[in-house]
Design brief:
Layout (H helix, E strand, L loop, with lengths): L3 H11 L4 H25 L8 E2 L6 H9 L4 H13 L2 H18 L12 H28 L8 E4 L8 E4 L3 H46 L1
Antiparallel strand pairs: 1-3, 2-3
Helix pairs in contact: 1-2, 1-5, 2-4, 2-7, 4-6, 5-6, 6-7
InterPro entries: Connexin, Connexin_CCC, Connexin_CS, Connexin_N, Connexin_N_sf
Protein name: Gap junction protein
Keywords: Cell junction, Cell membrane, Gap junction, Membrane, Transmembrane, Transmembrane helix
Length: about 220
């Protein structure tokens, strides 16, 4: 799978981000996207083939695997990366709209089309709220689907067509556990960064509005 589009998106967003936003982009690109492409994808590559049960009843292994892993960790992680990065497109589109509007009117309408103020500030805040919400949704989804942030070495399955309770073994559980913890940790870090940037922008805008009102009263 090619991740060039996500890399280009993050590079584009980086031009219009605050300092905290640039840290978020670095975390997503270096500690999530690169780790996914370089290591995690290969670890889960043959997870179904390496899932073994101590019985050769036709269909038993497939049914047990589907029960304990309804969605692959790595595919869900990929979907999470795409979804949490997509709200940033709102900012890119808004800046493109400003630039296109200036070209259409053939005059300078904004001091800087990429400056976070006015309508662009609202768009930026909405994108932060969406990114934070999506991160939380995926963390909850991971927890619910797999009964916690853990990968057991052994699972017991008694679903038909298995004739009785069978033992099924998951390949490389320790290695997968380490990457799962890394996934959760980086998601939590991104949530903290998004909330920090959201608080910073709201506080900055509130102080700016207060100073404007104060100056008007003095005049």
């Amino acid at each position: 799978m090619s991740w060039a589009f996500l890399r280009d998106l993050l590079s584009g967003v980086n031009k219009y981000s605050t300092g905290i936003g640039r840290i978020w982009v670095a975390v997503v690109f270096m500690f999530r996207l690169l780790v996914y492409v370089a290591a995690a994808e290969n670890i889960w590559k043959h997870e179904h083939d390496e899932f073994e049960c101590n019985i050769k009843q036709p269909g038993c292994e497939n049914v047990c695997f589907d029960h304990f892993f309804p969605v692959s960790h790595i595919r869900l992680w990929a979907l999470q990366l795409i979804m949490v990065s997509t709200p940033s497109l709102l900012v890119v589109f808004h800046v493109a709209y400003r630039e296109n509007r200036e070209k259409h009117h053939n005059q300078k309408l904004y001091k800087n089309p990429g400056k976070i103020d006015g309508g662009l500030l609202c768009t930026y805040l909405i994108s932060l709220i969406l990114k934070t919400g999506l991160e939380i949704v995926f963390l909850v989804l991971f927890y619910k689907l797999y009964n916690g942030f853990k990968i057991p070495r052994l699972v017991k399955c008694d679903i038909k067509p298995c004739p009785n309770t069978v033992d099924c073994y998951i390949s490389k559980p320790t290695e997968k556990m380490i990457f799962l913890y890394f996934l959760v940790a980086t998601s939590c870090l991104c949530i903290v960064l998004n909330l920090g940037e959201l608080s910073y922008l709201i506080l900055k805008y509130s102080i700016k509005c207060y100073l404007k009102r104060h100056m008007k009263k003095q005049q």
